[in-house]
Inverse folding.
């Protein structure tokens, strides 16, 4: 199934693996929907609400996803490339083996997450905190106090 140049408001109880959505605006509620291995390209999902869905292996390319809410959504192996995700919330959602490249996560909150094996490479971290501690300050302190070790 392919959706192109559409404006959708509600998607519920759909089962469309390998769905391709391009150049569309989806400011909508998506509930109880399976979209495994689907591709979203140049889609504006800003403000959308995803609940109890399956989006394993989904690819998100050149998109707006600011203020999206993902609740109880299985997103194992997603690929996010050139995606703006400012203010996005992921609640009780599985995002194992995620790949984020050129993604804006400004003011995004992660809480009660398993970050085992998380790698952060070449990222801006100004004002980033972990449990209330400024990460940039922690890294500078570590570098200054562990030279040559």
């Amino acid at each position: 199934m392919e959706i192109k140049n559409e404006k959708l408001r509600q998607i519920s109880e759909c089962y469309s693996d390998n769905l391709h959505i391009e150049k569309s605006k989806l400011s909508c509620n998506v509930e109880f929907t399976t979209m495994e291995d689907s591709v979203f390209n140049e889609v504006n999902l800003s403000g959308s609400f995803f609940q109890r869905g399956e989006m394993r292996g989904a690819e998100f390319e050149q998109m707006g996803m600011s203020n999206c809410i993902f609740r109880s959504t299985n997103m194992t192996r997603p690929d996010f490339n050139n995606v703006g995700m400012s203010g996005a919330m992921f609640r009780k959602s599985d995002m194992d083996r995620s790949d984020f490249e050129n993604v804006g996560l400004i003011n995004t909150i992660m809480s009660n997450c398993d970050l085992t094996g998380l790698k952060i490479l070449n990222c801006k971290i100004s004002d980033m905190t972990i449990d209330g501690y400024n990460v940039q300050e922690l890294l500078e302190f570590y570098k200054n106090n562990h030279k040559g070790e």
Q: What stands out?
A: Residues 2-117 form a domain with the Pectate Lyase C-like fold (CATH 2.160.20.80). The helical segments are 135-145. Residues 9 and 28 are 4 Å apart (CA to CA). The longest strand covers residues 59-64.
